[in-house]
């Protein structure tokens, strides 16, 4: 008997161990190797695209910086030189120094190439010196091309400067020559970030550093300090169009890409530490390795355990199936057999769990169908917590909006047209509400009620309400432009009020609505009624919360039914239209 039992036990062990171990480990090995290779290739391609895009963007920003100076210079060469225009030229030049901090000095040259005005931040000003500058490269280059950008030079061996010259659109106007302090490009280059610690720097044609987030590296301007930057640019040039690896000035290995600034023959290089750039890939590889080890251990343990078990009673399986079929979804079939029956029992158990979850979800959805606010239903269904439906007192913003002249329109228009208009109108409102995380309580004919800051708290609900109302006005007015041919009196108004209110599920057991109750609801509704077409009215509480963030116009106080005193009212925008009485 023992000899007969032994081979069967060994056979079961070999079968389950080998099958399960191979079934788990082999796919993991294949998937892990594929993920490592494909992940590296995709991550390298993604980083190449990101760095090249960042480099091009940085080049555009610096080009815009220089182009802005060029345009400002263009304003100083609008008038021809005459005895009467000298003072006007001087005022224009001084104004340029105030408006463009990067300009260190400005020279204005007349049509004959003679210096007529020189103003400087640090030197003495000169008026009408008549020095002949016609042979200067700046004057000749500007006259030939309209604008001329000179080479970079380092004043006193540290600060980078360059000349920019702009010629007037007429030969009689002359040329403006500006000495520009490139140290101010630091503000542009410091704002460029790649990932958490990546940054950018700028090299001129000969490879000298002229802009870097660490301004000390630029001001030092020593030849030895330039070599790491030049070596990194050389590595990129060896692989045109691709991100290249190299070492930065700190000796850290980085991934870098470059974009040219053609107008001045500069190069913008953006870089990111290699460890940071490939950090997600390294994390994925570690997770894959852990998964391989864990999967191998799990497969070995599971195979050993299953090989020790015998086939369980079929009647236990039948009884379990009968109970599950009768609706006892919490029942589990306990079979420790190690063959097809245990796998079948596991499938039935999984099916029972899915049916249980499906039943719970169905019951929850049936309960949520009693509520009309889709945001509330989504929140409860997603979190499984319906405590947000309980009544509570909160500070919220209430928004009411409706169409003006819709009743007359609906009387004259046919039914299909009215339904089409309402459908498109509702779509516009719902899109705006969802974009600003509001809660759409209900549609009522051509009107709607929206809550912000309930049931879920959001920052700056008053600002969001006004922004949402602005989007509503814009989009609805676009719709009305096409509908006014059917009804010329169609319009759209919005009322916004802020204050405490009671929110929660209100109604009967068979039908509940998530809504708000309080004076703020009545006030918002009255403001909506008083708003004219293309007008957004705001109460004083919401106006105080908005502050100076959005322009508001104080209107005549409004008498509100149910309130003893007139209510201060504000309109969004710069017009002073009074609310309708």
From TrEMBL:
Keywords: Cell membrane, Membrane, Transmembrane, Transmembrane helix. Residues 397-528 form the Guanylate cyclase domain. InterPro entries: A/G_cyclase, Adenylyl/Guanylyl_Cyclase_3/4, dCache_1, HAMP_dom, Nucleotide_cyclase. SMART domains: CYCc (SM00044), HAMP (SM00304). GO terms for biological process: cAMP biosynthetic process; intracellular signal transduction. GO terms for cellular component: plasma membrane. Pfam families: dCache_1, Guanylate_cyc, HAMP. Residues 308-360 form the HAMP domain. It is a multi-pass membrane protein. GO terms for molecular function: adenylate cyclase activity. It is found in: Cell membrane. The chain crosses the membrane at residues 281-307. Its main location: membrane. This is Adenylate/guanylate cyclase domain-containing protein. It comes from Reyranella soli. The lineage of its organism: Bacteria, Pseudomonadati, Pseudomonadota, Alphaproteobacteria, Hyphomicrobiales.
């Amino acid at each position: 008997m023992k000899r007969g039992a032994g081979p069967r036990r060994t056979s079961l062990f070999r079968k389950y161990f080998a099958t399960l171990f191979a079934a788990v480990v082999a796919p993991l090995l294949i998937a892990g190797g594929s993920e490592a290779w494909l992940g590296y290739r995709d991550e390298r391609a993604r980083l190449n695209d990101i760095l090249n895009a960042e480099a091009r963007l940085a080049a555009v920003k610096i080009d815009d910086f220089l182009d802005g100076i060029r345009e400002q210079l263009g304003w100083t060469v609008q008038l021809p030189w005459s005895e009467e225009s000298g003072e006007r030229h001087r005022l224009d030049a001084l104004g340029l120094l105030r408006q463009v901090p990067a300009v260190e000095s400005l020279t204005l040259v007349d049509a004959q190439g003679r210096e007529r005005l020189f103003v400087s931040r640090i030197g003495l000003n000169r008026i009408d010196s008549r020095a002949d500058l016609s042979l200067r490269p700046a004057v000749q280059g500007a006259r030939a091309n309209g604008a001329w950008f000179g080479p970079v030079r380092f004043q006193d061996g540290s600060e980078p400067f360059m000349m920019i010259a702009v010629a007037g659109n007429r030969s009689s106007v002359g040329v403006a020559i500006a000495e520009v302090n490139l140290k101010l490009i630091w503000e542009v280059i410091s704002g460029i970030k790649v990932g958490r610690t990546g940054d950018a720097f700028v090299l001129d044609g000969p490879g000298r550093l002229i802009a870097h987030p660490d301004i000390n590296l630029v001001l030092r301007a020593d030849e030895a300090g330039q070599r790491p930057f030049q070596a990194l640019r050389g590595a990129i040039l060896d692989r045109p169009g691709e991100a290249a690896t190299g070492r930065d000035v700190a000796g850290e290995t980085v991934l870098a890409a470059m974009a040219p600034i053609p107008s001045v023959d500069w190069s913008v290089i953006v870089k990111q530490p290699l460890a940071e750039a490939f950090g997600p890939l390294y994390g994925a590889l570690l997770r894959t390795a852990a998964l391989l080890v864990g999967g191998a251990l799990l497969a070995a343990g599971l195979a050993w355990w299953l090989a020790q078990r015998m086939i369980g009673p079929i009647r236990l399986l039948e009884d379990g199936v009968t109970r599950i079929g009768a609706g006892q979804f919490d029942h589990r079939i306990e079979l420790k057999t190690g063959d097809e029956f245990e796998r079948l029992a596991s499938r039935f158990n999984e099916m029972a769990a899915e049916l249980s979850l499906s039943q719970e979800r169905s019951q929850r959805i049936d309960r949520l169908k009693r509520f009309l606010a889709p945001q509330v239903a989504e929140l409860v269904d997603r979190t499984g917590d319906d405590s947000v439906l309980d009544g509570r007192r909160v500070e919220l913003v209430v928004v009411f909006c409706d169409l003006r002249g819709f009743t007359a329109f609906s009387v004259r228009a046919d039914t299909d047209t009215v339904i089409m208009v309402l459908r498109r109108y509702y779509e516009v409102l719902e899109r705006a509400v969802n974009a600003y995380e509001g809660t759409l309580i209900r549609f009522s004919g051509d009107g709607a009620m929206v809550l912000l800051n309930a049931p879920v708290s959001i920052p700056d609900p008053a600002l969001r309400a006004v922004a949402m109302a602005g989007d509503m006005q814009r989009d609805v007015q676009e719709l009305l432009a096409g509908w006014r041919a059917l009804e010329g009196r169609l319009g759209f108004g919005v009322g916004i009020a802020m204050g405490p209110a009671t929110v929660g599920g209100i109604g009967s057991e068979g039908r509940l609505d998530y809504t708000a109750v309080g004076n703020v609801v009545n006030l918002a509704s009255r403001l909506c009624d008083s708003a004219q077409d293309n007008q957004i009215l705001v109460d004083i509480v919401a106006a105080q919360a908005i502050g100076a963030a959005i322009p508001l116009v104080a209107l005549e106080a409004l008498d509100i039914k149910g309130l003893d005193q007139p209510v201060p009212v504000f309109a969004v925008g710069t017009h002073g239209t009074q609310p309708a009485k």
